[in-house]
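Record 1 of the preview.
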Amino acid sequence: MTDYAKKRFLVIDDQPQARDALRTVAQTLGAFAVEFASNYQDAIYRIRNNTPDIILCDYMLGDGRSGQQLLEELRRFKLLLDETIFMMVTGEQSYEQVVSAVELVPDDYIIKPFSPDKLLLRLERIVAKKNFFADYYQQKRKEEFSLAIALLEQKRNSEGGRPYRFEILRQQAEVLLASGDSNAAEVAYRDILESHDFPWARAGVARALHKQNRLTEAREEIDRAISGTPHFFDAADLKATICMAQGEHAEAQKVLDEVAKKTPRNYMRKRLLAEAATLNGDVETARTAMAEVIAGDTMPGAVSAEDRLALARSHVNANDKISGERVLVSMRESEVQNMNLAEQASFAALMAICSPEKGKPRFTGLRPALLATELGITARLDVMRAALSVADNELADLHTEHLMAGPEAKKTFGSIRSQYALYGREKDFREIQKQVALKRIRHEEVAPAASAENGIESS
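->
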C-alpha cells in the first residue's frame, strides 16, 4: 500500500464542511500534509507555488467555476505534472457522461458520499497507473517523442500494459500529433475507433485531418464527435476552427456563441470567439470578447501582448481608432521591443492605422524586414491593411499574394477583399487572385511531369 503520510494533499472545495469532510477522509488514509483551497484562484495560487502530490477537487467551485475548468487551466499553463493525481469529487451522477466525452480528463472521479476505503481503492489504482507510465512521462516532458513512442510500444506489448490498453493507444496518438506526424496520428486514432467509438478519439481524427488541411473530412468527423455529447466543448472549439479555415465564419461564430454562454469564464474560448467574430464582421462581439479576456483572465502571465494587440485590432475594426490607439500607447516601449517580429509588425501596422503621425515612421522603418520575412496570418493581414492605408501598394500586394497562396486562403479571403474594396483596388485584388491561381495550376502541371522524369508513376 502507498505511504500517504509522505504525500501532499490539496483539497479544493468552496464549502467549509465539505473541505473538513475530505480532510478527515484523507487523514484516515494516513495523510499528514493536507492543505485547503476555498476557490478557483486560491487553488491555482497554491498549485503554482507548491504542486501537491494528490488533488481532491470538487466539481462545483462556486462563482460559475468548475473543477473541469480548473483542470483545463492547469493543463494550459503546464502547472500540473503528469505524475500529480487529480481526482474530481462530485455529487452529480451524470458526471460520468461528461468525463467520457472530454479530452482533458481527470485521473479519476468519485461520487459523494464515499468511504475512506472507496477513496483508497481509487487512489491505489491511480498510483499503480502513474508508476507504470513514469518513464514515459519523463520523455514526453522533454519532448523526446521517438523515445516516448518506443516506450509506449513496449508497454503496449507487455503483460502489465493490458489494463491500460486504451490509455496507451491514446497517448501514442497524442504524441504522434504533438511530434508533427499527423498522418500516423490519424491512423492511431482510427485504430482506437475500431474497438470503441470514443468521442475524444473521433475528435483526434478530426484534429489530425485538420493538420493535413483535409477540412471537409475533418468537419464530418468533428460533427460526429459532437453528436450526442453536449458537454464536449473542446470539440465545439475544434469545429469552429475548422469552419473558419473553410471560410464559414458565421457558422464558427454561432458554434462558439452557444458554447461560450455555457462556459462564460473560459477565456481561451473567448479569444477564439473574438477571432471568429472578427472574420465574420461582427466587430462588437469581437470587442466585447477581447475586453472580457483582458479584464477576466487573471492567471499571472495569461494576458499577453498578442491579446492587447487583438483588443486594439478589434477597436480598429469597429473604426474606433481613438480606443485602438489608447490600447497601443498603454504598452510600454520595453514591452514592444521584447516582442517577436510578427508582434512588432502588428503593433506598428495598427499604430499606423490608428495614428498615422505616430505610427507611420515605425511602420516604414520595419519595411525592409516586412518585405523579406515570413510572417503569420494575423501579422500579414495587419501589414497588408496598414500598407493599403499608407498607399504602399507593393508591400500590401506582396502580403496579399502570400495569404491567397497559403493553406488558409479561404479563412482570410473576405477580410482581404473588403480592405482592397475600401481603397478602391478591387481590380488589383482580382488580378492577384488570378496570378495565384495560374501559379498553382503551373505547379500542379510540373509536379506530375517531374515525377514521370524520375520514373515515378502518377496515381
